[in-house]
Amino acid sequence: MASLFGLAVIGFSLTSSLVGAALFFVLTGVAFQLLQTTSMAITQQVVPGHLLGRVMGILLLSNGITQLLGVVVGAAAQAVGLVVVYFVLGLAVTVFTLLVIACQRPLRTLD
After folding, report:
1. pLDDT, tens digit, for every residue of 75-105?
2. Are 1 and 38 in contact (CB under 8 A)?
3. Minimal CA–CA distance to 45: which of 34, 56, 35?
4. Which of 13, 16, 52, 93 is the most exposed place for a label (fewest CB within 10 A)?
């Protein structure tokens, strides 16, 4: 799902039509929601009950802190262009996801 998200961001960065951008935008939103739902379900399944509140709090806090990266991404977009930033970020998400899938056998076999 994360690789689908990354590919949708790459597609969004490369399209020049409004309809294509809208379709990739919807695909990005759907993929992100599936990613969030799956990651929360895995977190709740793997983390012991007595630590779940703390872990979920940190996850929610990290979601808020990532908004600060908007400053960095905005500066990068100002310097090199928004298309380049979207493409590079989409590529990074896709490559990182594929590396995690290849290297983390316990995540592939989660019961």
Report:
1. 999 999 999 999 999 999 999 988 888 887 7
2. yes
3. 56
4. 16
Q: Is residue 31 a contact partner of residue 1, using CB atoms and an 8 Å limit?
A: yes
100 with 107: CB under 8 angstroms?
Answer: yes
Contact 38, 5 (CB under 8 A): no
C-beta separation of 37 from 60 below 8 A: no
Residue corresponding to tokens 């995540």: 107
Q: Could you identify the residue written with the tokens 């961001």?
A: 9
Closest Cα to residue 30, out of 1, 67, 62, 60? 1
* Residue whose structure tokens are 């310097």: 79
Confidence at residue 31, expressed as pLDDT on a 0 to 100 scale: 92
For the record, the structure tokens of 39 come out as 């990651």
Which DSSP letter does residue 81 get? -
Banded model confidence at residue 14, pLDDT cuts 50, 70, 90: very high
For the chain, the farthest-separated pair of C-alpha atoms sits apart, in whole angstroms, at: 50
What distance in Å separates the CA atoms of residue 92 and residue 94, rounded to the nearest whole number? 5
